[in-house]
Amino acid sequence: MAQERERGITIQSAAVTFDWKGYRLNLIDTPGHVDFTVEVERCLRVLDGAVAVFDASAGVEAQTLTVWRQADKHKIPRICFLNKMDKTGASFNYAVESIREKLNAKPLVLQLPIGEAKTFKGVVDVVSKEKLLWNANSDDGKDFERKPLLEMSDPELLKKTTEARNALIEQVADLDDEFADLVLGEFSENFDLLPAEKLQTAIHRVTLAQTAVPVLCGSALRNKGVQPLLDAITMYLPSPEERNYEFLQWYKGDLCALAFKVLHDKQRGPLVFMRIYSGMLKPQLAVHNINGNCTERISRLLLPFADQHIEIPSLTAGNIALTVGLKHTATGDTIVSSKSSALAAARRAEREGEKKHRRNSEAERLLLAGVEIPEPVFFCTIEPPSMAKQPDLDHALKCLHREDPSLKVRLDPDTGQTVLCGMGELHIEIIHDRIKREYGLETYLGPLQVAYRETILNSVRATDTLDRTLGDKRHLVTVELEAKPIETASVRPVIEYADSVSEDLLKASQEAIENGIHSVCLQGPLLGSPIQDVAITLHSLMIHPGTSTTMISACVSRCLQKALKKADKQVLEPLMGLEVTVTKDYLSPVLADLAQRRGNIQEIQTRQNNKVVIGFVPLAEIMGYSTVLRTLTSGSATFALELANYQAMNPQDQSTLLSQRRGFT
């Protein structure tokens, strides 16, 4: 994307398929920035293994933790690659230590760097005791030589490598019993005799079990260390056959794939990225989408090479494909060959489930788990240059929402404006830029707003009666309910029914009652923000025979609104976890500025020559922080933000906010 080239960051994940020493690799590059978390989430969903890339001078950073947790959640085996070994301040040992401490992982050091920062010229392979030196004149890194380490030429390096190898063998033996037996049995006297192949198989097993992570190093700028990294990927990360997915056994070799990303191409229409779990894909094939319950036809099948694509006649399981012609498929949809194949798989799953006495709903077991979309924290209004352009803007937003599910679009019921909800300032800025470049629309963004929430502080009761006669029908409902605050954080209201409410009445009207409650909880009495952490108890309900469900909903809504108006109300604001990396000289102005922003500093760590400030700041105070931070520190500091939780505002700030919203200030 043009925006990626300008900013030098990854915004959208891109896919490349290539061959290496007889293996086929599907590589997906994901963004590291917190605003694009959903890109990482949906790619991890379809991967078998991952390479976590670190900056050797910084080690584990704030965003590394987030991505690492996501990989833990999807149980993905991974390798660590310490990049930028030739950067000033790069430290191999510091980075390995930070992986051990901050990620609670066990790093297996498989390489040692030869030189660091300016003197970095190659790596030592600890497993095979060889050194790899890159030719200083070659820019693309193809030209390198591999030599065994000899006592005569490199005595120091050999000693260091032998120590590292022995430590590695002990570490792996602790984690893998089969390898431990081998070491204790045959090679207990002399670890040097242990063949490299045996050690590699053991490392492969340990990586797959996720009890440890292999660590390699290099510099991507000059492609130093990339070839051994590719070898390590083929050696230690799992192939599709080695990942066992529970749902595959039901399909018995029929097609099963997950659509994990949609791109819009000007010529070809929507391109859908798919991971094939079983069966095979061909062009002109009709496929069935379980989530959308519709059948579509794939017109062409492409292999992805970043922004170029190669057409192919068919593709087998374990691969990642680009399909053209699927109009209704969205992120997270499960694709199968036909409806009947899905039903057959459901029957097999059910028979198996009965044996194990596990009953969950049919469709749920067949659907591959989709992608969790985080809740947006920023929103702003977006307006087209003229009303005539509104349909074009709606179309552009619809396309962008299909590509990026973390972008939410809604209409403001009071003003009729279109509201964009996103993950951060950068996210909304990029969307605005893309609408301009890709769809040729000059849109206007309103000021960025914060997604507040509301709650109540005390429990309140209210009763309400709705009595209407429409035509010859009398609609009469009487409701008594109580709203009370709860301790546990819950975005949706917890609905309870008192014993006095009769079950027959509830059967008929429960859905109407819950719709009424949910609709009120979407718009609170103070700011019209969603209400959270509230439990609603229905104490009594009297319904005249023949009353319509709409009337029941309306009465419950009105009664709850009454109750909430009486309660003591509290605004909750999003609190962001902030991590600022700054040199010692600029620490005090940064701290002073954070104090003005109602910041709460948790700790200040030392990372080599820098200080890392960790704390929490309300999102409302951090708008445009990047420019302020640059000015304060002459551009030397960096920061990372992510949503921590929602917290209550103090009364003074709350009253200021309310008078601002009502237009009194």
Task: Give an account of the 3D structure.
The strands form eight sheets. This protein has an eight-stranded antiparallel sheet with strand order 15-14-20-11-12-19-16-17. Strands 21, 22, 23, 24 and 25 form a five-stranded antiparallel sheet that branches. Strands 26, 31, 32, 33 and 34 form a five-stranded antiparallel sheet that branches. The model is unreliable at 358-363 (pLDDT under 50). The chain is built from 18 helices and 34 strands. By secondary structure, it is α+β, with helices and mostly antiparallel strands. The protein starts with a helix and ends with a helix. Helix 5 (155-175) crosses helix 6 (177-186). 32% of the residues lie in helices and 31% in strands. It is found in: Mitochondrion. Keywords: GTP-binding, Mitochondrion, Nucleotide-binding, Protein biosynthesis. GTP binds at residues 29-33, 83-86. InterPro entries: EF-G-like_DII (IPR053905), EFG2 (IPR030851), EFG_II (IPR041095), EFG_III (IPR009022), EFG_III/V (IPR035647), EFG_V (IPR035649), EFG_V-like (IPR000640), P-loop_NTPase (IPR027417). This is Ribosome-releasing factor 2, mitochondrial.
